[in-house]
Every structure is written in C-alpha cells, then in structure tokens.
Amino acid sequence: MVYNEITMIRTQIQLDESTWERLRQIAFQGKSSIAAVIREMINTQVSPKKKAMSRTEDFTFIASGRSRGKGSGTISERHDEEFSDGIL
Q1: Nearest 5°: phi and psi at 54?
Q2: CATH number of 2-46: 1.20.900, 2.60.40, 1.10.1220, 3.90.550?
Q3: CB of 73 within 8 A of CB of 67?
Q4: CA 42/CA 52 separation, integer angstroms
Q5: Residue ranges in the chain modelled with pLDDT below 70
Q6: Under 8 Å between Cβ of 22 and 16
Q7: Dist. CA 60–CA 57, nearest whole Å
Q8: Which DSSP letter does residue 7 get?
Q9: Facing residues of 3 across strands?
Q10: Quick one: which of 32, 42, 46, 55 is 20 to 30 A from 24 by CA?
Q11: pTM of the model
C-alpha cells in the first residue's frame, strides 16, 4: 500500500469504545479518516522534534538560593576554587 509516496504498513490496534468514538468524531469534523487522524496523532508524538530554544525566563530557579558561610556571594564567581577548597 502506498500513501503519498510513502510505503505504508498495515497494523491492527484495539481501542475501547469511548476512544474509538472520539476518534470518529475528530475524523468527521476534519473530513478525514480515522486512520489519518491516528497517523497524525502518532506522528506528533513519535517524529523527531526540534529542540526548543531555552530562554532565561524559563529558568525561574536561577538565583533563587542564598550562599552562606565562607566566601558567601562569590561561589558562583569562583566555583572551581571553592570546589577544590572544599574537597582538599
């Protein structure tokens, strides 16, 4: 079977009645087949996704803690030195 020049493999799945009915409604509303709806849903979950670019605003935990003790406030600036002092 060929679909848009892509070789298709036939498979069978079992769905509970409520899932099948929801898929049927989605297919009807989109003037599509249930198989096409399932393929599209699978493609959105299985296909390789582009890595989303991170923004600084996404990392709300940055600078949320406080340093205490020796070198307080400078650990992030001199972390290698502080780390070596701590393990030696």
Answers
A1: -90, 145
A2: 1.10.1220
A3: yes
A4: 20
A5: 1-4, 49-54, 56, 61-80, 82-84, 86-88
A6: no
A7: 6
A8: E
A9: 6
A10: 46
A11: 0.48
Token pair, residue 33, equals 């087949």
Contacts of 67 (CB under 8 A, 6+ apart): 73, 74, 75, 76
Tokens standing for 61?
Answer: 């935990």
Task: Enumerate residues 6+ apart whose C-beta is below 8 A from 24.
Answer: 34
Domain boundaries, the chain: 2-46, 56-87
Nearest to 35 by CA among 59, 1, 69, 66: 1
State both tokens at 14.
């079992």
DSSP state, residue 58? G
Token pair belonging to 59: 């990392």
Hey, what amino acid is at 76?
A: S
Contacts for 37 with CB less than 8 Å, ≥ 6 apart: 23, 26, 27, 30
